[in-house]
């Protein structure tokens, strides 16, 4: 089934928002839980929170590819130009 022309709908948008937010809550909960049980020191917690934006961007990229947001308008132009050759 060719889905190149199909754009993600409102359900995909809601799934993206829910997925990214839940990943953020899980990450913060994991860091807090590991600190609470004594597996992380305060310096390691600070480093984990410092790296949280990187984790957030990676999760957002993975969700965007999975839900079909990765195709940009210019991608179709390059594909059409290469097909015409």
Characteristic key phrases:
85 residues, mainly alpha
Which class do the helix and strand fractions yield?
mainly alpha
Largest sheet: none
What is the distance, rounded to the nearest whole angstrom, between the alpha carbons of the first and last residues? 25 Å
Structure annotation, total helices: 4
Residue-averaged pLDDT: 84
Provide the β-strand percentage band. Answer: under 5%
Count of the separate structural domains: 1
Number of strands: 0
**Element pattern in H and E:** HHHH
Portion of residues within helices:
over 70%
Q: Low-confidence parts, pLDDT < 50 over ≥5 residues?
A: none
Overall form: elongated
In oligomeric terms, what are we looking at? single chain
Roughly how many Å is the radius of gyration? 19 Å
Question: How would you describe the overall organization of this protein?
Answer:
- This protein is mostly helical and 85 residues long.
- The protein has one domain.
- 76% of the residues lie in helices and 0% in strands.
- The protein has helices at residues 10-37, 42-50, 52-67, 73-84.
- The longest helix has 28 residues, at 10-37.
- The radius of gyration is 19 Å and the shape is elongated.
